[in-house]
Amino acid sequence: MIGHESTRDEATRHDRGQLVLIAAVTIAFILLGVVVVFNGVLYTQTLSSSASGQAISDADRSALEIEDGVCALAHNGSVSEDDLTALEEQYPHSKSGSTASVVSFGDVTTDNNVTTVEVRYVSSDLEFERVVEVDLEECPDHVEEEEEG
């Protein structure tokens, strides 16, 4: 009978060992699941907050590009209506492939060497209108003019 009791103790210990192993694997999977969910939440928050920052930078870049475009068209402190019309037609087409936004022009006026362009910027998470004023006298000289002079 003594041999029978020791076999039972070994079987009980063996069962307990399996139970501890199953509990450890279950806890490991639960922790792994919590880590994956928590990481996904943090990544989503980071992605959503950085998207609006990127949209603002795209809008600022668009305003600078429009200002540079008007300056590039300026000859002797003035811009012709045909040049402004061409810029107004071509600029939105040049932006359509590089960003997920739409840039359109409103009124474009020139008065006393200051060209005013109303710009409407629309992206998936940002929409606003901005007035870009370009003082044609403050535009940098063209490289060709510097080489000639």
TrEMBL record:
Task: Please give the start and end residues of each transmembrane region.
Answer: 20-43
* Pfam families named among the record's database cross-references: DUF7261 (PF23922)
> Which keywords annotate this record?
Membrane, Transmembrane, Transmembrane helix
- Identification of the protein by name: Uncharacterized protein
